[in-house]
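Friendly challenge for the regulars: who can give me the C-alpha cells for this chain first? No prize, just bragging rights.
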Amino acid sequence: MQQFPLCADCLSRFDNSARVFLAPQGTDCHICKGLLSKTPELVKQAIASARDGGFEWESFSVSSSFPKIVLMREQEVADFFAPNECTSLKNKINSELSASVGDASKKKNSPKNPDAIFEFDFIKGIGRAKPATIYVHGHYNKLSRQHCQSRWHCSSCNGRGCPDCKGSGMNYPSVEEEISKVLMRAFFATDGILHASGREDVDVRALGGGRPFIMELRNPKKRRADFSALEAEFAANPAVQAKGLKLVRKEFIDTVCGSHFEKEYSALVGADRPLTGVDAKKIEALSGQVLFQQTPTRVMHRRADMVRKRKVISLRAEPAADGKLRLVILAEAGTYIKELISSDSGRTKPSVAEMLSCKAVCEQLDVTAIHDFFLETIRID
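First reply, four minutes later:
Bragging rights claimed.
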C-alpha cells in the first residue's frame, strides 16, 4: 500500500489514514516540499507591504498561488480519499492566511468587498498587499461636440505626441480623461478607466439626466471622497460634467454596460431642398415603425456587417429655421439615428430621406434622455 510523508500543515488536511504519516521534516513533505514553512515570513512581508504602501484600508481579502507541481502532488494524495475526508491546500492556507493577517492588523476579512488585497505567491516566495480597485458610479453630461467618449490615441503618433495632435497624443479630448483626472486626484489613484452604457459620437452631446457610467480607479490611496464637492467641480466644466456619484461594487459594471436602454434624441435635419410643415407631418409616420438597419458604412471597420431590426417608438417633427426640421425621437437601444435620417445609401429602411424623396442629413444630434430608471432600484453598495 502506497504511503505519503506529509508535513504537519499538509497532514492536518487529511483524516487519519494509513495512507499518510508525519514526515521527519517539512522538506520531506510529499506535497509542499517545505513551502508552507514560508507562510509566517510571507505574512510579515505582506503586512509590511500594506504599511509601506501608504494606502487606507480597514478590510482585506487574501489569495494564494502555488507551483502547478504542488497541486498535482496534492491531487495524487487526495485521490485516495473521499471528498469529505480532505481539505484542499488553497482553501486551508487561505483560511489560515486570513486569520494571520487579521490577527496582525486587527482588521476584518471581507472577501467580497475588501479595501486591500493580500497576495501570497508561494512560487516566488513573495507576500504583498495592494489597494483594491474603487468603482464610482454616476451619470455624465457631454456638452461638447469635440469630445469623444474614451481615450483615442492619435493615429499619427499612437499617443506619443506629435505636431498633428499638438503634443497631446490624442485625436480628441475625451469624457474618460475629463472624469478620470478629477476622480484620480480625489482618490490618489494611478489610473482611471471609463465603463459606460453605450456611447455617443464625438459630435453628439449627451444632455438631460446624462449617460450612466462607472469609473474604475486603480491603486487608490484613499477610499472616501466628498462627492458633493466633486460634483460642484464637475459643474464648472464647460465640456463634461458628472453627477449622482456613489461608490459601487465591480459587479455593477455588467449591469450598467450590459443593459439596453431606450433613448430620446433631438435631431436637426437639413436637406437638398427647404423642408416644410408638410414634410414634418409626413415623416411622423415613422412613429412605431420597425427599421431594418444594415451596419452603417461609418462604423463598418469595427462592427460586423449585418442587418439589425430596431423600433422607432415615437417621432415628432416641426419646422426649424432655414428650411430645416427639428425631430424629437424616442428609439429602441442600438438605433442608428443619423442613418434613420440619411438612409446611408439605402442601408436603413425606412428613413427620413426615403419618405421625403430627397437627400437628408442629420446636422446636429443630442441625446436628451436615457431611460435607465431601473438602475435606481438596484442595491449597489
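The chain has three domains: 4-131, 134-259, 263-370. Residues 89-105 form the longest helix (17 residues). Your move, everyone else.
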